[in-house]
Amino acid sequence: MNVLVINCGSSSLKYQLINMANEEVLAVGLAERIAIDGSRIKHETIGKEKVVIEQPMKNHKDAIEMVLAAIVNEEYGAIKDMSEISAVGHRVVHGGEKFSGSVLITDEVKKVLEECSDLAPLHNPPNLMGINACQEILPNVPMVGVFDTAFHQTMPKSSYLYALPYELYEKYGIRRYGFHGTSHKYVSQRAAEILGKNIEDLKIVTCHLGNGASVAAVDGGKSIDTTMGFTPLEGLMMGTRCGDIDPAILPFLMEKEGLDAAGLSDLMNKKSGILGLTGISSDFRDIEDAAAAGDERAILGLETYCKKIKKYIGAYMAEMGGLDAIVFTAGIGENGAEIRRDICKGMEALGIEIDEEKNNVRGKERIVSTDNSKVKILLVPTNEELMIARDTVALVK
Ligand code: ADP
């Protein structure tokens, strides 16, 4: 059974075709610049040469049509006919409080997703466009929605409520939701498998450190707290997002800088984080290079970044009443050996001991703590697409 996994953004669409008989990836690709000049698809069928197909795409339907054409292309495609696609799994960012797991997409589900769009105006509308486009082109193929928020629906109320008037939670759903759930779930499960333990017996802190970044406390396989909140802005400092700040800074800046709501949102989401603090870049490779060359703000930026993660590890260790494993994943978590080291450094008294030699690795599943470390430290490359495909199979079977 082949499952097509779609992750649809406002101007891009990532996809993977996976043969679920053996969980083998058949093709991967990215449609870029949808509805912008210079649209193109980068497609790769595993075992064949990569191709770049440049062709205008005026909307997401055009993009899906081109993706499917690439997948069945005689020369560089992966399958002969679209009928070989049994189901489509869609990544959906916000499922609100309605979805604590993946769902088969129906008209009713789409209505709820539209309601959730208010909560994720940048993400849910393009996710829905992807779903609608797929349904038009593949009308008889079942579709499943897999939500970034779902895994965190097990958080207790005391983790997700803000100390705002309770009516605001009831009226607008203002609460913490958490994101990157599919990734936190995948890497915590893999960590348990790697350690040869039952996940129900483990207290794990998962650190998803990519362009967006979040840490989660996974107790017995369930998320009980996470750093992202009402939106993916809360918590850690990220590439361009500020994470936690004193909320009183906002009215202060409105007054001093004359910023309105859109200006503040732009400042906090796009101009802050490691980019804002260092003035160099949002890409951590650039920051590491600048720090190695002695740039003081780059050094400070990395210190600030690591300290914040360390604080959350400590907080979640306290919240769970112990810790068995720390897992690092996503672009920075998988590749940034020095960042992993600096986060863990100084926590030896808490039983957290990284092995510098084992830690000197990129993008591979590996235990990177010392043999004596009470808390195991693991590097686990994330695989959200596989999780989406697995959920899709489970629901359409
Ligand atoms: P996204 O959230 O967009 O999926 P990724 O998980 O791909 O993000 O992570 C992107 C981030 O990973 C970038 O900030 C990039 O700097 C960082 N990254 C990639 N390779 C390295 C590396 N070798 N060292 C440090 N950071 C890296």
Automatic annotation (TrEMBL):
It catalyses: acetate + ATP = acetyl phosphate + ADP. Substrate binds at R91. Keywords: ATP-binding, Cytoplasm, Kinase, Magnesium, Metal-binding, Nucleotide-binding, Transferase. ATP binds at K14, H208, L209, G210, N211, G212, D283, F284, R285, G331, I332, G333, E334, N335. Mg(2+) binds at N7, E384. It holds the Pfam family Acetate_kinase. Belongs to the acetokinase family. Catalyzes the formation of acetyl phosphate from acetate and ATP. Can also catalyze the reverse reaction. This is Acetate kinase. It comes from Alkalithermobacter paradoxus.
